[in-house]
Amino acid sequence: MAHEYRVREIAQQSGLSTATVDRVLHGRPGVRAGTVAAVHRAIADLERQASQLGVSGRTFLVDVVVLAPPRFTRALRSAFEAELPSLRPAVVRARFHFREEGHPEDLVEVLDSIARKGSSGVVLKAPDVPALVEAVFRLEERGTPTITFVTDVPTSRRVAYVGMDDRAAGATAAYLLNAVAPNSGGVLVSLSRSSFRGEGDREVGFRQALREMAPDVPVHVVEGADGLDASTLSTVTSALSRGPVIDAVYSVGGGNRAVLDAFDDAGRTVRAFIAHDLDAENVALLRERRLTAVLHHDLRADVRRLCRAVMQAQGALPGRPRSHPSQIHVITPFNEPAGLVEDD
Length: 344
Fold this sequence. Notes:
alpha/beta, 434 Repressor (Amino-terminal Domain), Rossmann fold, 3 domains, 6-stranded mixed beta sheet, 45% helix, 17% strand, disordered C terminus
C-alpha cells in the first residue's frame, strides 16, 4: 500500500490506534476486513486533502456524521474536498462517517467514539431523537462543538444549524406545484423518515401553503423508505394503488428515480414534480424533463459556513457560531447552475 503518510496521521484520520494501523500497513493477520477498509479510506481521504497538509496555520479536524443515501453523501464529500483548500491559512481536515441506513443508536456509537478521541467539531445530519440529543450533550461535555446540518436537532446543545429554512422550502414547493398543476387530483409527499426535523418542517410548510392556495387538493404522505430506491418504489407503488387520482409529487426525502418508476409502472402521469438537491440523479432527471424543479442549496457555501462555525467555537475566529439559513435556489431544466453540479 504505497503512501507518504505517517502511521500517526493515518491513525488520526481513521480514528484507529497506531498499533492497528501498523498491523494493516504491514499485512499482518487477525485484522477485520472493515478495519482494513477504514485504513484504506483514511489514506484516500488524506491524499484527496493533500493540498492542505503543507499549509502553515492552525489545524482543525472536523468529523462529518451523516445518515443519508450515497447520492447525497457523494455530493457532500465533493463539496468538502473542493472547499477545504480555500480556507487557508487555516488547515481543515475532514473525517467522514457516512451511514446509508440504520438506527439512531448506530450514530450514537459514532458520536461517543468521537467524544472519547477528540475532534475540533462535529457536523451532524441525523434524526431528532432523544438518544442523539444526549450524545450531542456528551460531546459538548468533552469540549467538542456540534453543528447540525440540513436537518436540525434544536433541543440539543448544538452550537448552530446550517441549512435551509425548511418551512419556507415546503411553502415554495407548494407554490410551484400549484402554479404548474392547478386543480391537482392529489399530491404525493414522500419523506425518508419523519424523525428528520427538516423533512417534517418541509411537510408542515408545504401543507400550510397548499391549504391556503388550493384547500381542496388532497395530500398523501409516504415515509420510512430512507430515500433508498427499492423501499421508495414499494411505498410509492402502494400509495398509488390507494390514491388513483394522485398526479403531482413533492419529494422531500429523495429516491426520485424510484418514485417515477412507480408512476410509470402504474401507467400514471406526473403533472408536476418538485424535488430537493442537485445530486447526480436529480441533474439527470432534470435534463430528461422528468422533474419540474429542484430546490437547491449550494453545498460548498454550506461547507464554508460549517467550517467557520467550528473555528468560531474553537476561538480561532471572532464571534460566536450562529445558525444560517441557506439560500433556496429554484432550479429548472433551463437554469442549471454552472460549477455546482456533479455530473458523474
